[in-house]
Amino acid sequence: MLQVNRKKLLVLALYAGEIMLKNGAETYRVEDTIIRLCKSKGFSYVDVYVTPTGIFISIDNKGESQEEILSYIKRIKSRSINLNKVAEVNNFSRKFVDQKISIDDGIKLLKEIDQLLPYPHYIHAVFGGLASAFFALLFGANIFEFLSAFITSILVTYNLKYLLSIDFPPFLTNASGGGVAAIMAIILSFLHPSIHIDKIIIGAIMVMVPGVAMTNAVRDSIAGDLVSGLARAAEALIIATSIAFGVGFILKLWILFAGGTLI
Question: Which residues form the Threonine/serine exporter-like N-terminal domain (predicted)?
Answer without folding.
Answer: 12-253
